[in-house]
Amino acid sequence: MAEQVMLPDPELPSFDGWTCPLPLRDHRTVVMGHGGGGQLSAELIEHLFVPAFANPLLEGMADSAVVTLGGARLAFSTDSFVVQPLFFPGGSIGDLAVNGTVNDLAMSGAQAAYLSCGFILEEGVELSVVGRIAADLGAAARRAGVTVATGDTKVVDSGHGDGVYVNTAGIGLVPDGVDIRPQRAVPGDVVIVSGMIGVHGIAIMSVREGISFGTEVVSDCAPLNGLVAAMLDVTLDLHVLRDPTRGGVATSLNEIAKAAGVGIELTESVLPIPETVANACSFLGLDPLYVANEGKLLAVVAPEDAEAVLAALQAHPLGVDAAVIGECVPDHPGMVVTRTTFGATRVVDTPIGEQLPRIC
């Protein structure tokens, strides 16, 4: 009897033309790593979503798209939040839903003006929980100076959700003369971080796993639009801004290095890592460079602007601990390395998945 040959379904995407690196090809189903912000996430976007949606606006691969509408330049972004637990030291999924989208818009230089908000509720979740999240979301919007202008609510069967998921989308105006995107990093540029790193991820882990690190670690969840406005008051010529959320500082810098075709060199001894985060990471076997943040930004600026931008950051309540942590170099384009305290150099690569899943 002749062997049957199964023909591919023309309605489904073909995996046969996909190229290395291989991790995504090894998975015929979605795994948690695809949502972790690392290499698996990047491959999923690059090989599946970008070809499906192909258009010039997606090519920038920034935190928000900058579009022109009626003569105005608008930043437009959307984000979904599935964090567990729903409440944590320093915030909740409601705070994250506002600050995450406000910050994505701010990374294009825009002041968020309006948000949409979609709630996906699991049957059986207590209304008091939903009410508390909604109250947190509303309060966070007022603090950020943004209006929740429209929304939607859906309910899924018990066991088919995880209590509450939230999606927010936002728009904001981009000031004239501002051109912030990862492709603008050039050799000689200075890399600045706005404060202590790794705090949010450790705060989530401490509550989720019931681990005490000797003191309570509080999330840095905060809106960064005011901080960005202070930087733009110094210079409109900010080259790159990124908020290092999933995948942490390491992943964001790798994305910038690859987009701009530059190398990035960090100095380990000046990285602002709080002692609680360093101790927790040592205990858990994590690297703080890969731990998520929700209230910090990375800025890549021209060397002649670095001192003034750093001073503007340090003068703002959310940037008191800002520091210069490295520079862009012509060597090893597309790679990030760090100079260790022992004088050696190590490669800071993009992780395959995520050290701490479900942190936003």
UniProtKB/TrEMBL annotation:
Entry-linked InterPro entries: HypE, PurM-like_C_dom, PurM-like_C_sf, PurM-like_N, PurM-like_N_sf
Name assigned to this protein: Hydrogenase expression/formation protein HypE
Top-level division of the source organism's lineage: Bacteria
Coiled coil (residue ranges): none
Family: Belongs to the HypE family.
Gene name, Swiss-Prot/TrEMBL: hypE
UniProt domain PurM-like C-terminal: residue ranges: 187-332
Annotated PurM-like N-terminal domain residues: 63-174
Pfam families assigned to the protein according to its UniProt record, in alphabetical order: AIRS, AIRS_C
Natural source organism: Kribbella lupini
UniProt cross-references to NCBIfam families, sorted A to Z: hypE (TIGR02124)
Taxonomic lineage of the native organism: Bacteria, Bacillati, Actinomycetota, Actinomycetes, Propionibacteriales
